## 1
Amino acid sequence: MPVTMDDVAKATGVALSTVSRALADNPRVSVATREHIQKLAREMGYVPSAIARGLATKRTCSFGVVVRDIVDPFLAELVRLVDMHALELGYSLILSHAGNDERRELAAIHLLRQKRVDAIIMPDSSVSDSFLSKVAHEDIPVVLLNQMSYPYSIGIDNVGSGEMAVNHLLDLGHRRIAYIGGLRCRAESDDRQKGYTRALEKRGVSVDPALIALGDSWSGGGQVCMRQFLHLERPPTAVFCFNDLTALGAIGAIYSAGLRVPQDISVVGFDDIALASFLHPPLTSIAQDKEQMAKLAVDMAHALATDQPVPERTILPGRLVVRASTGISGLRTNT
């Protein structure tokens, strides 16, 4: 049986109210008595009840985390970092996996409300409109990542990062540059495409609609879109992908066609997942500062849960990580 506060009171021979105050470091109890009770409680193995503390403080020191695709390596890394920073502030996580299902998203909110979480963190940018509409009327604070239409959000500069990726390819001499977007995270994809278009136009390169395709944000979609480009009369010499998983599929399609990366086609991904540096060749990618994003999200959730001032939106810059998947434009004609 767990040791209770009543057990500690009997062992110390003082009133239950005195034990309660001593364990809460209340100055109404003398320092000597507090130290004695706290020492004995530790020796007895007493652990404070989170349920009782929650009833008293109206807080559970827990955050809910809702993800649609936990198998996405970028999201998995984010959730791990959110958990680490939440623990530093004394919060535990309750993880809910919704899949690609709006009803399960809404059910997750209902469940987390029942659990009385102090705030909800949504690291998946593919959140549905129904979810956004629902949380707007909830009494539990919600923090979103990479969903900049929402007031309390942490995200990356997708337009600027897309422009950075394409400028890198332009600097290498490429002019036939394709873009593979992602349907699952359409707002992010559109912003990265805006950066792609802006970079080309600033350098006087016409945007060819035939070099823009939308995948499913997974490797399969990247493979399908890349095959589509390779069947063009003038295929691209470089491709910028919505994310690293899309880039992985594109590289597979390039190799299947008997071509090489980057000698024939250069490839740039986005997210800089842990796997990126182990691909063949290692993938050039736009890195999101996952550590900073997770910390800011946790800090924002904590501030909202404890009625502290909090900035509404934070946009972080992307960072180009150059690896061996990009190189100087090869033998193909780029004009």
## 2
Amino acid sequence: MDLFLQALTQGILVGATYALIALGMAVIFSVSGMVNFAHGDFLLIGMYLAYALFMGLHLDPYLSVLITFPVMCLIGGALYAFLLKRLAGSNLLMAVQLTLGLSFIVQNTLLLTFGGEPIRAPSIVETDLLVVGNIIVRTPQLIAFAAAVTLSVAFYLILNFTDVGRRIQAVQQQPRAAALIGVNVSLVRTLTFAFGIGVLAIAAVLIVPGTSMAPAHGLRWTVIALITVVLGGMTNFVAIFLGAILIGTAESLATLYVSGTSGMIVPYALFIILVLLRPEGLLKRA
């Protein structure tokens, strides 16, 4: 029973971090209609930036977010404004091909710059543990969970109860009508894309402590974000968070109860089953 509770706790904590990664993809899709297949590679950029700041300035990964967040926002805004803007809302296949091309560019750039061997950027809290009864929780995972929940709730409140959120929803639902009432659709899409990439800088510093990184790891993060967003119905942020918790929990429990590589299949098998049963998303009515 203790092992089950340990694995369940681990899965929930990890799932919250997955939700934060998926949030960036969902935000980008909601206003531009694009699925960014380089999403995980941009997460790696954030992780490698944190590593570079640690090596160059001895800056703890958690503090490096003060630099990496604005840098990633600028990268995202520039990428959309100068490269992806013309594809927004149309030419879905071209957007997929373009972002896949970006994935290869980022992967090989990181490979040339940092090499192909797995590396790590340690933090001062990396080895800290919190013991609650028989449950042991790593402090970095607890920090990641708290940050993911806080940011997800903050974005939900902004989206539903502020003028900025109403502009985003207007562009998401009816971009032409939004333009007619004075909403700068292009600016909203650019800023939202920038935020979607900037969120990855936050997710990166939450993942870095205790996690190795390599240029080839981007695809795994992209797949996790994509299946989580699909489970949530693409734009339902509450369902996306729930889907991330399910994937994280399935991954953790499968590692405990299913031996070998078969355990790695369980989260993806669960995804297939849920999509077959609820193709419209976990919380969306058919």
## 3
Amino acid sequence: MQELSNDQLEKLRRDINSVQGRFFHLLSVTVVVMLVLAVGMLLRVFPRFLWNLQSFEWEQNYIPQLLCGLVVLVLLLSGYVLEQRRNLRRTQDRLIQELIARETAERLAVIDPLTELYNRRYMTQAITREVARADRQNSRLAFLIIDVDGFKHANDSFGHLVGDRILREVALLLQRTFRTSDVISRYGGDEFLVLMVDVDDQKTASSEERLKSEVEKWNRTASIEGYQMALSCGTAIYRRGEDPKAILAAADQAMYEHKQRQASPAGSPV
């Protein structure tokens, strides 16, 4: 699938707007031409009628020809305008379809099809973007790596369809827990990565507590019979000037340490 840049999508939008502008320009020119013809006809007929009745009577034989010519000219101009409008409409429809297709391709390139979260590719771009912004604003970022405990065992025991459902349920929990400004992605397999922007240690801890509460509520509903969800979470804070890769590695290490501290084999069939 071809990757499309924002510049290419923006150019398509400008082309669509240009087609719309050409149509309105053509319509304006048509109206002006018709007004000029109408005014010219009035100036040709009525002044002579008012100022020189005799001359008007001599020339009135030419008025039907003038009117007929005017009607023919208007009809030809109208036909031309309608044909150009159809051409512009076809061009606009083609550009809109191309824009939709390209935006769809762009979205599919960065969205995980199973969970409908961002994928690792997009998260890599987001980290670069948000780190640059945090450095400019002297703010902090939090990297949260979240792993589904016992996922392989649950996937093998309950089947892949249930395993896919577990991943989708985790994605929904993450979306309910974190802010819309935070970037949530499926980072690979049963591992998720959340990039929290403009945070401190307290906000990060509060988010982890909310996630824990959401998991507990989910388990009380027994959404999947015989399965209890448990998540391991590792967090690391990025500060200005630090290496994002090192912070990500620190979050990953914290997640594995959390997993080792889990007291029960949660995430396995009961």
## 4
Amino acid sequence: MHKATNSKKIKVLIIDDSALIRSILKEIINSQTDMEAVGAASNPLQAREMIKTLNPDVLTLDVEMPEMDGLVFLEKLMRLRPMPVLMISTLTERGSDAALRSLELGAVDFLPKPKLGVVDGMQAYADEIAGKIRIASRARLKGHKAAPIPALPMVGPRISSTEKLIIVGASTGGTEALKEFLMPMPADAPAILVTQHMPEMFTRSFADRLNGLCKMTVTEAVHNERVLPGHVYIAPGHSHMLVKRSGSNYVIELSQAAPVNHHRPSVEVLFRSAAQSVGANAIGVMLTGMGKDGAVGMLEMREAGAYNFAQDEATCVVYGMPRAAVEIGATHESLPIGELARHVLARVMSGGVRNRL
């Protein structure tokens, strides 16, 4: 899956109506030894012809452009010629709905342009841009969605009032995986805590978007709030999220401590806190994502008695974080994303987590 030993360069086509941005991106991409900018288009209509002739591996795409809106183009592209797309746009920062919509349409990831000092700002992003292009080049594109998964049955007062918590980590591809995991969950499911790698300007919009789709109540987590059944708590993009005991309750703690595994929020931090505070009452879920964040924390959860699931390779956009967890023995089962909610809820209903280690 990795191309590290492959001398073939990643061919990138840049689509942006700003000549300055096209020039900066071209310079950043061509300064990397493993990729090259094979072309630059000022609008999607021009890009359409260049895709046919240049056959790029990855597109970088702006949202707000003349002739055709970037999201309209993305929707057509994914229907007619699916390929890896990295959104790089001011609109992604100004209007996070556009960023989230691009992921729904099939973009692998997004990166906001800097608000001020475009030249210096873009150069500061050089490593991140190159890294996201590499991830996109290896990403597994999702086909057309299957029929909606039916809602799972209510768990009932006996189960919803227990101390069980579902602890979830995700990164690249995770916004759509989370939607597929959370939508079937009944309104009275145990509380679900989620750390998704995402910039802080997006997490509240993401939580609001999920809240409109899910039966559970989905919110951006708040420091010191009590964890309640029927609620999903999304770690804000500016802070680590931890779960702690407070008497007979669980509460959320937010921390602006240094990044862990280059991330804040970090899945590792959430999982380790669950190992320490929730133990055998926790059910861990590792979804699609690049890197290894959370693998060690998930192993600590397992050692503390938790039962852990990983999304399987076939349904991951990037099989990095689940692979890392599986390889160190942190998980019990790997399942397709469409089956995870049902199996996690069945585990909640059956109890007996500790005796399955």
